[in-house]
Design a protein that fits this description.
Number of helices: 8
Distance between the termini: 31 Å
Radius of gyration: 17 Å
Mean pLDDT: 92
Helix content: 40-55%
Strand content: 5-15%
Order of helices and strands: EHEHHEHHEHHEH
Structural class: alpha/beta
Largest sheet: 5 strands, parallel
Number of strands: 5
């Protein structure tokens, strides 16, 4: 008997400045999708593979503060190339809905907006590495950067108080140590990209309580990806 090929899965990314709630909301979205019978795969960038996680560790390590923006950009896309080849593309082909915490919009926002890397360079790498793979829906959790960074700091120190170990050392990573202007530029790029492509982006007010944010995310998915 010939096995019927499953319908192609969908690809969703969840984006936003540090502290916007991505790592909280993604599992909630996944549980909701699974409750309605959808096969899912949750992943993140940089990361998602052993190579990607190693590159993530390097990219976040404060010891490498001052890394050239181009080196940073190429490391991000190296992790992405492996992630797409080993995880994302095969899952989508197998009919799985992939939920990714950050994807290429984060590169345009952090490396393009934050680091001032030429966006045409980012776009060229996007085409080379991703071919025609793009998220079907980009969910942008929007929050003033100062609020997000305060949340991130509370989270770091909360991890210390509960666990008391290096896993929650309270130390800010290489990106969290950037100044307020850096994160304002990041946020501006996210919102700019959403305005330019409203059919593929949903901007969610992340200043609401967590349950309300979840409801708005689910509604956006139901409306955009019936």
């Amino acid at each position: 008997m010939t096995r019927t090929k499953p319908d192609r899965g969908r690809f969703l990314s969840i984006e936003g400045v540090d502290g916007a709630g991505k790592s909280t909301q993604l599992p909630r979205i996944e549980r909701w999708l699974q409750s309605v019978g959808t096969r899912t795969l949750a992943t993140r960038e940089p990361g998602g593979t052993p190579l990607g996680e190693s590159l993530r560790t390097m990219l976040l390590d404060p010891r490498f503060t001052g890394m050239s923006p181009m080196a940073e950009l190429l490391a991000v896309f190296a992790a992405r190339a492996e992630h797409l080849a080993k995880v994302i593309a095969p899952a989508i082909e197998d009919g799985v809905w992939v939920l990714c915490e950050r994807f290429t919009d984060a590169t345009f926002a952090y490396q393009g907006g934050g680091r001032d890397v030429d966006r045409t360079t980012i776009a060229a790498l996007q085409d080379i590495v991703q071919s025609d793979i793009r998220p079907d829906l980009v969910l942008v959790l929007d929050l003033p950067p100062a609020v997000g960074l305060a949340r991130a700091e509370r989270r770091r120190h909360g991890a210390v108080s509960v666990q008391g170990t290096a896993a929650g050392s309270g130390a800010a990573d290489r990106f969290e140590r950037e100044d307020a202007a850096f994160f304002r530029r990041v946020r501006e790029i996210y919102l700019e990209r959403a305005r330019e492509n409203p059919e593929r982006y949903a901007v969610i007010d992340a200043s609401n309580d967590g349950a309300t944010v979840t409801e708005h995310l689910i509604r956006a998915i139901e409306e955009r990806l019936p």
